[in-house]
Amino acid sequence: MAISLLFLTSTTILSISFLTLLFLFLRPSKSSNLPPGPPCFPLLGNLLQLALSRKQLIHYIPDLIPLYGPIFTLRFGSQTHIFITNPELAHEALIQKSQLFASRPAETPIRNIFSCNKFTVNSAFYGLDWRTLRRNMVSNILSPTRLKTFDSLRQTAINRFIDHIRAESASDSEISVLRNTRFAVFHILISMCFGLNLHDEEINKIDILMKKVLVTASPQMDDFLPLIKPLFAKKRAEAIKVRKEQIDAIVPLINKRRGILENPAAHPDATNFSYLDSLLDLQVRNSAPPTDAELVTLCSEFLNGGTDTTATAIEWGIAELIDKPSIQSRIYEEIAAVVGKDARIINENDTEGMVYLQAFVKELLRKHPPAYFTLTHAAVEDGKLGGYDVPKDANLEIYLPAIAQDPRLWKDAGEFEPERFLRGGESAEMTGVKEIKMIPFGAGRRVCPGMGMGMMHITLLLARMVQEFEWRNPAEKKLDFGSKFLFTVVMERPLRAIALPRK
Ligand code: HEM
Q1: Which residue has the CA at smallest separation from atom 41 of ligand 1?
Q2: Positions in the chain whose pLDDT score sits under 70
Q3: What phi and psi values does residue 83 have, to the nearest 5 degrees?
Q4: For residue 404, which of 165, 314, 438, 487 is within the disulfide window of CB 3.0 to 4.6 Å?
Q5: Which residues, including other chains, have CB under 8 Å from residue 332's CB and lie 6 or more apart?
């Protein structure tokens, strides 16, 4: 979700709460046709209640459902956020009224610097720029046919990843699962993006920079409270500095690719095609090709969209395999049945037919969606949802875990049971077109275009990890499945695991 309220510390919020002393009573919500919600404090809206709950927003929302029902309003300073938390309302918003709620809200000034004024698939208003950029991304880099052409690039990156784990487990018995997995996914994506064969150090450098961009672009207090904006003047200067660093790091990669395209024969280790190639001459704004700064933004979106989401899912997946060794054995047996115990490395063609592994990945995304909210939606014009008003400038937030664990739709919704998806059991079609039961990638016009690639990376990486290693808990006590928001919803205690080579 666009608002990372989760970064707002209680201290910061409490320190400005003196403003509320100007008003000695709570003010009810002004607009009677908005969905219900807690009473608002002047200026702060509901920020104070959120701070006093001492919870991150992802954990605060479930407290409000029994009080206000499946649709409610929270105000964060000057912004109105409408939350929907059940499958029926999600279906109404994302499928039945897909076009009405297909836009995004305005950017904060800092985010505008990084998005080149909304020049990305994820941030663009619903309209021509969005359609052109999205169509290009889907057909030129994320289509199943194109994904197949990157087979050997994926193998190279995953082999290097397995070597890293082997080396790390030989020198230090515990592996940091998220750090290693993030690196593997980022390696695949950066190679697909620029078509270059980069060294670990170069990949690492860009990865660190991308994280810095995410942190800098995260909304902070002044985005909700325009009155205190002057206090945050330094933030803009800092953002411009980080943007320059990002451009200085990425433009040389763009120029390197331009050189390769001029003389492909001189660069046999470069790929035949990259995402960047599809962008260089793309006619978007004013029918002109993107500038270098816009190319940096579009390439960064590709790298960021698919890295943390995929790596987070794998961290939760390995945690579940450690916690439930019988599931881990069953997946290993399924791999062995397909490729043999001492035979070749498993590939994506093999995983397509592995029914239990596929069920495991579905259950993983049901129980541990990497994003608890879709990206923030906005109405293209004033609209209605669940009988309430949704004004054009409101932020529409869809809370995914409440849908995927709705006890009306799922048996033993809180349990982790891949078996539920095996033949004759429960089903879930993840695009949500017919019916919404779990939508870890969103649904409707703004559904994640990377769903196919994300699923493929999660499935293949998990399969390789189980084929090569037996995963165990280094500690005696059971794993802690607490969660926290850090761009995606990660394990509160980052998973450290023992990886025992199987041969
Ligand atoms: C496990 C992996 C992934 C998960 C769980 C995930 C989840 C999501 C979600 C929940 C949304 C918001 C949908 C909405 O607003 O309704 C989204 C949007 C998006 N995702 Fe993903 N994603 C994943 C992988 C990827 C990958 C691999 C890419 C591409 C490299 C990608 C690129 C995007 C883009 C560009 C959007 C914005 C779409 C639009 O606004 O039209 N994602 N994703």
Answers
A1: 446
A2: 1-32, 341-342
A3: -105, 135
A4: 438
A5: 466, 467, 470, 502
Contact 217, 242 (CB under 8 A): no
CB-based contact 407:413 (threshold 8 Å) = yes
| 3-state secondary structure (DSSP) of residue 2 | coil
Cα–Cα distance between 106 and 477 in angstroms, integer? 47
Q: Is residue 116 annotated as involved in ligand binding?
A: no
Please state, as a whole number, how many other Cβ atoms lie within 10 Å of the Cβ of residue 94: 26
Asked if 366 contacts 87 with a C-beta cutoff of 8 angstroms, the reply is: no
């860009």: which residue's tokens?
206
Is residue 6 within 8 A of residue 57, CB to CB? The reply is: yes
Going from the Cα of 257 to the center of ligand 1, the distance in angstroms, rounded, reads: 26
Phi, psi of 449 (to 5 degrees): -75, -15
The token duo for 251 is: 């433009």
Mutate to test the pocket of ligand 1, among 192, 210, 441 (most ligand atoms within 8 A of CB): 441
pLDDT of 16: 45
Residue nearest to atom 27 of ligand 1 (CA): 306
Token pair, residue 419, equals: 């078996």
Question: Which among 473, 463, 403, 407 has a CA at the least distance from the CA of 438?
Answer: 403
pLDDT value for 32: 67
Name the residue at shortest CA distance from atom 21 of ligand 1.
448
Whole-prediction pTM value?
0.93
Which residue CA neighbors atom 40 of ligand 1 most closely?
122
- For 396, the enclosing helix (H) or strand (E) is strand 395-398
The single-letter code of the amino acid at 391 is P
Mutate to test the pocket of ligand 1, among 278, 361, 448 (most ligand atoms within 8 A of CB): 448
Rounded to whole angstroms, the Cα distance separating 444 from 155 reads 32
For ligand 1, the distance from its centroid to the CA atom of residue 446, given in whole angstroms, is 9
- What's the confidence (pLDDT) of residue 323? 98
> Shortest CA distance to 454 belongs to which of 273, 302, 279, 347?
302
Instruction: Tell me the DSSP string of 162-192.
Output: HHHHHHHHHHSS-EEHHHHHHHHHHHHHHHH
Task: Measure 89 CA to ligand 1 centroid, in angstroms.
Answer: 20
pLDDT of residue 141: 98
CA of 449 to the centre of ligand 1 (A): 6
Please state the atom number of ligand 1 nearest to the C-alpha of residue 439: 10
Length of the chain: 503
**CA atoms of 285 and 444, how far apart (whole Å):** 25
Domains of the chain with CATH codes: 5-501 (1.10.630.10)
